[in-house]
Design a protein that fits this description.
It is built from 16 helices and 22 strands. The chain is an alpha+beta fold. Bound molecules: adenosine-5'-diphosphate.
Length: about 675
């Protein structure tokens, strides 16, 4: 988790860096573009200045042609200066540079009041020496000319040698204002938003024209203006962001694109997070489903339309004793079909798959485990429909019925045991009756025989004659005693069962029969309720026999409630088994008896049946023996208790019997 976040952070940081670099490069590019533009502008300005100066020199030459005499010259010069603002002063000097005529611009009449014109003699001389050397117009380097203390302008001299008829006719000296050159010779539209300056080689500004917002960063371009005799540096300056607050278009586009990219990455991250969350939920749901399938005791099996197994759960694998790998992909005949029944199963499957409706309650079948043992199963099938609504196969739930069969078998066996026990009990009952009936006559036989023998002993003469009688009497005695012994041994047999009695709680009795009753109850949709009063003491009984009594009465109760009678949902499809102590009487502090009450809500018992209920072989059921209730009563009475029944309101019957409380030893 942490690593993933770190990775995301890294990607994000890289992206931001990339965008920053891009924006920076774009800005750089725009700036370089700006610089190129600026340099181009500076060059064009330089050439403007040069052309302007050339033109003004030509005009000067023309002026001299018009006014060749020192008298006329100043008038023409005054007019000339009023139209040539870049010049502040013109002079005509002779070949030795002595002034012949001069005129100062009307725009700056006080040019030579603070300092005299002759102070600029050095610059004039330099310009003219250049002019002579070049034999054409030449310029001097610029110089500062103070107008008042602390104020002044930057000027330069131009010397134009004059020729007349192949002879030197002196010089025309024009003094230019550097500032005026810029304002006059560069179109004002080109100066908008820019600043132009003449600078020295070291960058010191001599003259500046134009204004820029102070404090804003500027870009500049230099252009060398080469004049005859002197070289000047023109510097053009422009603010870095020429549009003021409006950033350059390219930067805006790249910036917007970068922001959109960042936004898209953000959205992607969000989408990814959602996807991860969904994946996690899906994994959880899958894990939950898997846990559920693995914990099922019901076997699950899916088949495709050709009958191939596509899925089995662990319960199914365990049932048939094969692994999922062995089962998946196997087709018909399935590996767990009994070999001799393959044909029959195949037909059955074909019929079932052809038929559109499947029995909801399923069908029973028999499977073979890997070790060869057979076991009964209940199969419930349903069509497997995919997300597009198309049937892709069949899903089956398989229940192993072995355990159920075992309980049913147990129940049948215990029923048989009951009947055997009951027969034994009946024999015992008869035997005790016989013993009771025979004991007295036998005792009489014995005593008569003894008396006879005594009499014979008292009259020995006669006794000798009657030897044979004596022998016979002795035999009588012997036989009688033997009969007595036989009877006693029968009585012992009955008593032996009595010895098997033990102390049992009502809970234990109910717990033993409950699974057996449940089998029938589930089939009939009956709810079973067992209830033992909290103060109910254990009873003293033959556990097996009492269990059979409870089973028999319970079963009768359920058989009296056939399906639909009473109807489902009426709350009456209930069989209640209850045990409670019989309230002790005033002179008996502890209870002597426990009462077992079995209540059903069945069809009840008619008046005429009531009388015959305990008659052996009375039954109203086609498969009934009619022995159950009779035996139950015998068993209960053998324990000293009583069995009775009465109708229950609003419908049904209540059977109840008592058993003695087990006394503490
Ligand atoms: P069997 O159950 O084999 O028929 P029983 O002696 O147990 O023999 O029962 C005899 C008859 O008594 C039954 O056939 C039935 O008609 C009737 N009977 C027993 N218990 C009930 C009951 N709870 N409700 C209605 N009839 C009953």
């Amino acid at each position: 988790m942490g690593r993933r976040w770190a990775l995301w952070g890294l990607i994000f940081a890289l992206l931001v860096a990339l965008l920053a670099v891009m924006v920076f490069l774009v800005r750089e590019y725009e700036e370089s573009q700006l610089l190129v533009q600026l340099e181009r502008n500076a060059a064009s300005m330089g050439s403007d200045v040069r052309t302007g100066l050339n033109r003004s020199i030509q005009n000067l030459q023309a002026l001299h042609g018009l006014a060749p005499t020192p008298e006329l010259w100043p008038i023409q010069a005054a007019e000339f200066l009023s139209t040539h603002r870049e010049m502040v002063h013109i002079e005509w000097r002779d070949a030795d540079l002595r002034p012949m005529a001069a005129r100062t611009t009307p725009y700056m009449p006080r040019l030579y009041t603070y300092r005299a014109r002759r102070d600029s003699q050095v610059d004039v001389a330099q310009a003219c020496s250049n002019a002579t050397r070049l034999s054409g117009p030449a310029f001097s380097p610029s110089y500062f000319w103070p107008l008042s203390p602390g104020q002044g302008i930057e000027l330069m001299e131009m010397c134009l040698p004059l020729m007349r008829d192949g002879q030197s006719d002196g010089y025309l000296i024009a003094t230019y204002s550097l500032a005026a050159i810029l304002t006059e010779m560069i179109p004002s539209s080109a100066l908008r938003g820019q600043r132009v300056a003449w600078t020295e080689a070291d960058g010191t500004r001599l003259t500046i024209v134009g204004n820029l917002p102070s404090g804003s960063p500027v870009v500049h371009a230099n252009h060398l203006v080469d004049l005859q005799g002197a070289t000047y540096l023109l510097r053009l300056e422009q603010p870095k962001a020429p549009g003021g607050w409006l950033p350059p278009v390219l930067t805006v586009i790249v910036g917007t694109l970068s922001l959109s990219l960042l936004g898209a990455v953000g959205l992607l991250v969000r989408d990814l997070r959602r996807r991860l969350l969904a994946e996690q939920r899906l994994a959880e749901a899958l894990a939950f489903r898997k846990a559920m399938e693995d914990s099922l005791v019901t076997g699950l099996r899916a088949r495709d339309m050709e009958g191939r197994i596509t899925y089995v759960n662990p319960a199914f694998c365990q049932m048939v004793g094969l692994t999922a790998e062995q089962l998946l992909g196997t087709s018909i005949p399935a590996p767990y079909w009994p070999p001799e029944q393959i044909d029959e199963y195949r037909q059955r499957l074909a019929v079932r798959l052809a038929g559109k409706v499947l029995p909801r309650e399923g069908f029973e079948s028999e499977f073979v485990r890997a070790d060869g043992t057979r076991f009964p199963v209940l199969i419930i099938e349903a069509p497997l429909i995919n997300a597009q609504g198309v049937q892709t196969g069949w899903m089956s739930a398989i229940l192993d019925l072995s355990e159920q069969r075992r309980i049913e078998e147990q129940s049948r066996a215990s029923q048989e045991r009951l009947q055997a026990t009951a027969r034994l009990a009946m024999a015992g009952e008869m035997a005790s009756l016989i013993s009771h009936e025979l004991n007295q006559p036998l005792a009489a036989i014995s005593s008569y025989a003894t008396g006879s023998l005594n009499l014979m002993e008292q009259a020995p003469q006669r006794a000798a004659d009657d030897g044979a009688i004596q022998t016979a009497l002795q035999r009588i005695q012997e036989q009688a005693e033997r009969a007595g012994r036989v009877i006693r041994s029968v009585a012992d047999l009955v008593r032996r069962r009595e010895r098997e009695r033990e102390s049992v709680t009502a809970q234990a009795l109910f717990a033993a029969i409950q699974p057996l009753l449940m089998l029938q109850a589930r089939k009939l949709g009956i709810t079973l309720e067992t209830q033992v009063a909290t103060d109910c003491p254990p009873v003293f009984c033959d556990r097996t026999m009492i269990e059979q009594v409870l089973l028999n009465i319970g079963r009768n109760g359920m058989q009296a409630m056939p399906p639909g009678q009473p109807p489902m949902g009426s709350g009456l499809r209930r069989l209640r088994l209850r045990a409670e102590p019989v309230a002790p009487s005033t002179w008996q502090k502890t209870p002597e008896w426990v009462r077992f009450v079995i209540t059903d809500h069945g069809i009840g018992i008619s008046q005429e049946d009531t009388e015959r209920l305990f008659t052996p072989f009375f039954t109203t059921k086609p498969e009934g023996m009619g022995l159950g209730l009779n035996l139950c009563r015998t068993v209960v009475e053998q324990h000293g208790g009583m069995l009775a029944f009465e109708p229950h309101q609003p419908q049904g019957t209540v059977f109840q019997f008592t058993l003695p409380v087990a006394k503490a030893l």
